[in-house]
Amino acid sequence: MDGQQDLTVGSPSKILFTFALPFFIANLLQAMYMAVDLLVIGQFCEGAQSTAAVANGGQAMMLLMLFVIGLSTGMTVIVGKYFGEKDKESMQRFIGSSLTLFFLLTLIMTAMAFVIAPLLLKFINTPEEAYDGALTYIYICSAGLMFTVLYNVSSGILRGVGNSFFPMICVAAACVCNIIGDLVLIGVFHWDATGAAVSTVASQAIGAVMTLSYLHYHPKIFQFHWDNLSLDKSHVTKLLAIGMPIAIQSILIDLSFMIIFAIVNGFGLNASAGYGICGRLNGIILLPAMSMGMAMAPITSQNIGAKKYDRALEFFKLSVFYSTLIGIGLFVWMKCFPESAFSIFTRDPEVIAAGSQYMSSFCYEILVLGFVFSGNGFLNGSGHTRMSMLMNVIPTFAARIPFAWFVSRMAGATLYGIGFASPLASFITVFLMMGYIATGHWKQERF
Predict the structure, then answer these.
(1) Residue 34: what pLDDT?
(2) Domain for residue 6, yes or no?
């Protein structure tokens, strides 16, 4: 069918690469899209104030983004299962109910963002010098939240039916817009954090228009009729049952990083800026593993829908192998030459030193990202989103946060010691996840 791909037939290795590659390119562009704000500000703005403002504002906005991405991933999984079952009628009704639900939720989230923005910035202990800029950044990005939601939801629908290519094209267009906008608004007009936010919203609007237009002109995927857009209780319930655990998991894990951000902010402005750059840099480093994991969700859901359990498991094993192989090379780079990466974002030697110190211990997490992301994608695709959530959230709050807090209280505490908190939690997650998958419980019907 036009704009769709059956992932239940063909060579697993070939499908994994051809389907995951657009995910990788799209995620790389998305990471550039997010990192370019800090990169341009680092090159055109003196001092660490503007860099810290965008870093803190971006960290706070990520909570809303992750909620949307989590729910849209649940949408991808369910659309993929219907597609695997060849149940087009149910797929259309589900997509329509989901679009309406997301529209209503976005109105609520936008209003909430304006209310809780100051609280979030205070929660992460935002440096006083960066507070106003960070608050402005959040307010502007929140005003354009509808564009972000529409893009993610539309892309989720396309990926569920096996189309990972067009979302990549949309991200590419948005990325180009964001780069041009940042160079003009920050480099020429010196709008600093305000310019970064305005450029971000404009580029997200382009992505949303492109994906919605694609759906409109491909009625075999979804037909925009009022009847299809009515809320169906059973479909809404199904979306929330599958998507909410993914969203909650993402939010709680990001919340843990916000808590660590608050701890790091206590080390001063340079540490705050360095940690913020590390976050953007990590968004690039994890791309291979994350892309494989994102591809695993629709691949698994389609194969589960077609009752091809062994094929789904084969995809998982291949995903872990390839993403871990790439991760080893990235680990060597971050462990041995972290300064080379941080110098891309800023010319400030103190910020580079602070970020490199944190990365030199944090980088051990790269070694297990293939297991974590592939496992999450596999369990989410099979509908076992609650188990995936528990296996990620428990280590986060039982190990990552307590360890970071404990190390920060030690005499002579440094960012190097705090950096070990994340890999510690991830190693525990891998242990739990591999044990659960080995039991075969993931084959039990969940949706």
Answers:
(1) 66
(2) no
Residues 241 and 269: their CA atoms lie apart, in Å, by: 41
* Beta carbons within 10 angstroms of residue 1's beta carbon: 12
Q: Give domain status of residue 5, yes or no.
A: no
Task: Report d(CA 162, CA 151) in Å as an integer.
Answer: 17
**Nearest residue to 163 (alpha-carbon basis) of 98, 100, 67, 79:** 79
Band of residue 348 on the pLDDT scale cut at 50, 70, 90:
confident
Mean pLDDT of the chain: 89
Tally of domains within the chain: 1
Domain holding 206, by residue range, is 12-443
Q: Is 67 helix (H, G, I), strand (E, B) or coil?
A: helix
The model's pLDDT over 267-285, given as tens digits with 9 standing for 90+, comes to 888 888 888 788 778 878 8
Q: What is the largest CA-CA distance in the chain?
A: 64
47: left (phi over 0), alpha (psi -120 to 50) or beta: left
- Tell me if 427 is assigned to some domain: yes
Among the listed residues 447, 433, 351, 420, the one whose alpha carbon sits nearest the alpha carbon of residue 389: 433
Residues 442 and 379: beta-carbon distance below 8 Å: yes
pLDDT at res. 95: 92
* CB contact at 8 A, 281 and 337: no
Tell me what the mean pLDDT of segment 84-111 comes to. Answer: 92
Average pLDDT over residues 103-126: 91
Task: Kindly state whether residue 403 falls inside one of the protein's structural domains.
Answer: yes
The pair of structure tokens assigned to 174 is 């948005």
- Please classify residue 405 by burial: count the beta carbons closer than 10 Å to its beta carbon, then call 0-12 exposed, 13-18 middle and 19+ buried: middle
Enter the pTM of the model: 0.82
Between 188 and 44, whose confidence is greater?
Answer: 188
CB proximity list for 374: less than 8 A, separation 6 or greater: 289, 292, 293, 296, 316, 319, 320, 323
Mean pLDDT of 307-328: 93
Cα(first)–Cα(last) distance of the chain, in Å? 24
Residues shown for the chain: 447
Asked whether the beta carbons of 30 and 171 are under 8 A apart, the reply is: yes
Dihedral sign for Cα 270, 278, 433, 296, please: positive
